[in-house]
Amino acid sequence: MRQALGVALGVGLLVGLVCYQLPESASAAVAGVGAACTAVAAQVGTWLTRAARRLGLLS
Description:
Keywords: Membrane, Transmembrane, Transmembrane helix. The protein has helices at about 1-20, 25-55. The protein is mostly helical and about 60 residues long.
């Protein structure tokens, strides 16, 4: 958990610094792609949790 949090913080900081240096339109495109990836990851995580519960892997 601690490693995942550290990686997420590092990637978020790096992307934030890059977006700060980019023009507004490119920064908006990076933000849109990031938001789409986050939404997909949340949906996949929910789907995997439900599938694991159905198979009895989670209580």
